[in-house]
Automatic annotation (TrEMBL):
Protein name: Cupin domain protein
Superkingdom, taxonomy of origin: Bacteria
Organism: Ruegeria meonggei
CDD domains: cupin_KdgF (cd02238)
Residue ranges annotated for the Cupin type-2 domain, each copy included: 34-87
């Protein structure tokens, strides 16, 4: 069990840091309702996303792609990305280096 707090990041979306090190951070994003949005954004960190459960439509730069349980992908540094929840579930994201803004 993570000792980090659960933080609301939008309507029906929460974030919880699961583990961190200066070089790497693992974070769970939980989407509780269909239609919940992970807003479009970009950051200098490289991000790997694993779909633990649910179904999501991601915008990755100029393209859109759907992902479901067991899928994973990498988002390069600086790429604009975001998602819409198609079925409630959890995304597990890893960031390198650590997202200090999440602490």
């Amino acid at each position: 069990m993570s000792h980090f707090p659960i933080v609301s990041t939008g309507e029906n979306v929460t974030r919880q840091v699961l583990s961190d090190h200066s070089d790497l951070m693992v974070v769970a994003f939980r989407f509780q309702a269909t239609g919940a949005i992970g807003a479009l954004h970009s950051h200098p960190h490289v991000q790997a996303t694993y779909v633990e459960s649910g179904r999501f439509r991601f915008t990755l730069g100029e393209r859109e792609q759907e992902f479901g349980p067991g899928d994973s992908f990498v988002i390069p540094s600086g790429q604009t990305h975001g998602c819409i929840c198609l079925e409630p579930g959890t995304l597990v994201d890893s960031f390198t280096p650590r997202r200090d803004d999440f602490l």
